[in-house]
């Protein structure tokens, strides 16, 4: 399949520059992206650069949003041989979502940019809301190409369009309709990719967006065509966007956070995403975010999970658009709240052998990579590296 990025050319007008093909970093055998994508199972870490990490619980833990804490995690993940680290991006009013999610958070782009000079091998993937006020395609292309240059091809972008009304409103907008956001993001990314690839000045007028390019040019050029591109989606419009632009798509389980239900639902969902890219002559990989609770024995792991849930932070459950139920509800509401207390797209709880087996089964279900999160990040990452990672190597999922 092709290693050329699809270019939609939406908005090209008379007088605009001709579009050129944009090579994917996967097309360069010596690129960091090629090394990562060649792994039987990609292994990543989802950093807790926001207060509360991924878990709405007050059970004591070391997890912290500070730069130093997260830098230590990145260096440990790199030493363990992890391929990727991600960080989220969020724009929240005072108080955040409440409770442990109090709104304290580093910026994803700036945090990972700072780590390009402190790491050697791992790919750093910054989440970027490409439609919000700060970004013009010329800024974005220049900044990301610079970081790609500094990192020697280890820069990645998780392209998001934003879905919470409060985020749009903070920038003085009304929330943009879902599918239109993807159309606008396509215009943005078309322009950015051309700035990475064009060998001459580039002019472009979009149909939907207010920015313009007139004789624009960017140096340095990315080392391997362009940075690694990722987006997170499950919608038709998002999957179509991924099929045109992304190397990796971040998916969630259609069946919720229960791992056994997820294993039943994921094969069809993952196949659908990959088929959309294949129809365009492209190959795309799928990535899932499990939160891992692992201890020496299954009983110990489940007891720790129960303790996390027993300390569920009621104050964190009332301000999510998608989670507006009360903590004190019926069985279904309490189950949803418990899942929020633990965190992750799915939760994997068990002994090292059980956790490794679940990850093997996720791979067989069509998942090409796992972007791990933990409740207590530092000790849990150490334990995973010592006890689970060797089992994944034995299973042939890690080289």
UniProtKB/TrEMBL annotation:
It comes from the Bacteria. CDD domains: Alkanesulfonate_monoxygenase (cd01094). Keywords: Flavoprotein, FMN, Monooxygenase, Oxidoreductase. Residues 43-368 form the Luciferase-like domain. Its EC number is 1.-.-.-. It holds the Pfam family Bac_luciferase. The keyword Mitochondrion does not apply. GO terms for molecular function: monooxygenase activity; oxidoreductase activity, acting on paired donors, with incorporation or reduction of molecular oxygen. It is an enzyme of class 1 (oxidoreductase). This is LLM class flavin-dependent oxidoreductase. It comes from Paraburkholderia azotifigens.
């Amino acid at each position: 399949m092709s290693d050329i990025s699809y270019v939609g050319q939406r908005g090209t007008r008379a007088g605009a520059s001709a579009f050129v093909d944009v090579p994917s970093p996967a097309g360069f055998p010596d690129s960091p992206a090629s090394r990562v994508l060649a792994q039987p199972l990609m292994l990543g870490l989802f950093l807790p650069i926001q207060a509360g990490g991924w878990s709405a619980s007050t059970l004591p833990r070391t997890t912290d949003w500070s730069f130093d804490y997260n830098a230590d995690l990145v260096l440990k993940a790199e030493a363990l041989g992890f391929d990727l680290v991600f960080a989220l991006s969020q724009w929240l009013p005072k108080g955040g979502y409440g409770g442990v999610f109090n709104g304290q958070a580093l910026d994803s782009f700036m945090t990972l940019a700072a780590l390009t000079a402190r790491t050697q091998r791992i790919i750093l993937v910054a989440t970027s809301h490409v439609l919000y006020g700060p970004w013009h395609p010329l800024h974005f292309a220049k900044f990301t190409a610079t970081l790609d240059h500094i990192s020697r091809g280890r820069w990645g972008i998780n392209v998001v369009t934003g879905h919470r009304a409060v985020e749009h409103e903070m920038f003085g907008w009304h929330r943009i309709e879902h599918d239109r956001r993807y159309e606008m993001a396509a215009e943005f990314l078309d322009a950015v990719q051309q700035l990475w690839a064009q060998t001459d000045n580039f002019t472009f007028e979009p149909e939907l967006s207010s920015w313009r390019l007139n004789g624009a040019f960017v140096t340095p050029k990315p080392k391997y065509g362009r940075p690694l591109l990722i987006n997170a989606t499950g919608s038709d419009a998002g999957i179509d966007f991924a099929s045109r632009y992304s190397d990796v798509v971040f998916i969630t389980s259609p069946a919720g956070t229960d791992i056994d239900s997820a294993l039943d639902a994921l094969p069809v969902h993952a196949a659908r995403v990959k088929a959309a890219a294949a129809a365009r002559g492209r190959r795309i990989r799928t990535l899932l975010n499990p939160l891992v609770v692992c201890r020496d024995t299954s009983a110990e792991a489940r007891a720790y999970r129960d303790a996390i849930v027993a300390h569920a932070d009621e104050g964190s459950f009332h301000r999510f658009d998608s989670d507006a139920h009360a903590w004190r509800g019926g069985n279904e509401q309490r189950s949803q709240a418990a899942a929020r207390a633990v965190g992750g797209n799915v939760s994997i709880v068990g002994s090292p052998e059980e956790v490794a087996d679940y990850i093997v089964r996720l791979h067989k279900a069509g998942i090409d990579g796992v972007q791990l999160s933990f409740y207590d990040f530092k000790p849990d990452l150490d334990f995973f590296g010592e006890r689970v990672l060797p089992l994944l190597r034995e299973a042939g999922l890690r080289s």
